[in-house]
């Protein structure tokens, strides 16, 4: 699976959009970009995923660059409850469908 | 509500006393997996199962056993727990390992302390 690079931490004001970047320059054509988050040792929570196109759901938007080498997770109106570690993961085919979480980005939403 | 349920949530026990952590999902998922999470080491896969009666080792299987007799259940067994198995454990499930556009869903975790 392609390696991902994320900033270790980011701050965001409550009510503002939080834009979390991820670099995955070695991604290959059949690999998906997934985003999860983990709030203080709770179970990782699935947020969104994409292959080539931008995606939006009730939680967030995912913007993938045309060359697929980077992506941005957007939380449109961050709240205090969005404070968490956010993980960008690239996965490819394989029988064990293993998720490899790196260090992620600690997003702190400030009042 | 679609969910992955783990029990117990917390357990403190002693070395050598067999224990089982249960995991159950109500989404009719074929794929299930166990991970452990330790500070500085991230999430590491212990075992996974692609379907009933099909299980295989992940990255750190030593000291653990699993079984998959029913689709919904995937228990993690520590036959003779040791202190180095003190960790935070997560069970996850997904529709199938063959469909990468289907996310894995995680349980709330089980914090084990082996004294």
Q: Profile the largest sheet of chain A.
A: 5 strands, mixed
Mean pLDDT of chain A: 92
The main β sheet of chain B shows up as:
7 strands, mixed
Topology pattern of chain A, helix = H, strand = E: EEEEEEEEE
Radius of gyration of chain B: 13 Å
Largest interface (CB < 8 Å): A-B, 24 and 28 residues
Per DSSP E runs of 2 or more residues, the count of β-strands of chain B stands at 11
Helical amount among residues of chain B, as a percent range?
under 10%
The secondary structure category of chain B is: mainly beta
Overall pLDDT level of chain B: 94
What is the strand and helix layout of this fold?
The complex is a heterodimer of chains A (about 110) and B (about 120).
Chain A lengths: L8 E5 L4 E6 L8 E7 L6 E6 L4 E2 L4 E4 L5 E6 L8 E8 L13 E6 L1
Parallel strand pairs in A: 1-9
Antiparallel strand pairs in A: 2-7, 3-4, 3-8, 5-6, 6-7, 8-9
Chain B lengths: L3 E4 L2 E4 L5 E7 L5 E8 L3 E10 L2 E4 L7 E2 L9 E3 L8 E8 L10 E2 L3 E5 L1
Parallel strand pairs in B: 2-11
Antiparallel strand pairs in B: 1-3, 3-8, 4-5, 4-9, 5-6, 7-8, 9-10, 9-11
Question: Can you tell me about this structure?
Answer:
- The complex is a heterodimer of chains A (111) and B (115).
- Chain A has 111 residues and is mostly beta strands.
- Chain A has no helices and nine strands.
- Chain A has a five-stranded mixed sheet with strand order 1-9-8-3-4, with no helix packed on it. A four-stranded antiparallel sheet of chain A has the order 2-7-6-5, with no helix packed on it.
- In chain A, strand 6 and strand 7 (70-75) form a beta hairpin.
- The termini of chain A are far apart.
- With 115 residues, chain B is mainly beta.
- Chain B is 0% helix and 50% strand.
- Chain B contains no helices and eleven strands.
- In chain B, strand 4 and strand 5 form a beta hairpin.
- At the A-B interface, strand 4 of A face strand 4, strand 5, strand 9 and strand 10 of B.
């Amino acid at each position: 699976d392609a390696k991902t690079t994320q900033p270790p931490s980011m701050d965001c004001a409550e009510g503002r959009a939080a834009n979390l970047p991820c670099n995955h320059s070695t991604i290959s054509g059949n690999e998906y970009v997934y985003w999860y988050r983990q709030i203080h040792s709770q179970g990782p929570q699935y947020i969104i995923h994409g292959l080539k196109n931008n995606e939006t759901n009730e939680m967030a938007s995912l913007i993938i660059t045309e060359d697929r080498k980077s992506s941005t997770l957007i939380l449109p109106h961050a709240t205090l409850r969005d404070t968490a570690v956010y993980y960008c993961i690239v996965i490819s085919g394989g029988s064990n469908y293993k998720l490899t979480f790196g260090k992620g980005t600690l997003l702190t939403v400030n009042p | 509500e679609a969910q992955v349920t783990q029990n117990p949530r917390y357990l403190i026990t002693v070395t050598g006393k067999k224990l089982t952590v249960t995991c159950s999902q109500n989404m009719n998922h074929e794929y299930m997996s166990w991970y452990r999470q330790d500070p500085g080491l991230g999430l590491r896969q212990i075992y996974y199962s692609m379907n009933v009666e099909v299980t295989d080792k992940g990255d750190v299987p030593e000291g653990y056993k699993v079984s998959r007799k029913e689709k919904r259940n995937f228990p993690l067994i520590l036959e003779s727990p040791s202190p180095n198995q003190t960790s935070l454990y997560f069970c996850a499930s997904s529709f199938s390992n063959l469909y990468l556009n289907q996310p894995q869903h995680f349980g709330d975790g089980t914090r084990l302390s082996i004294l």
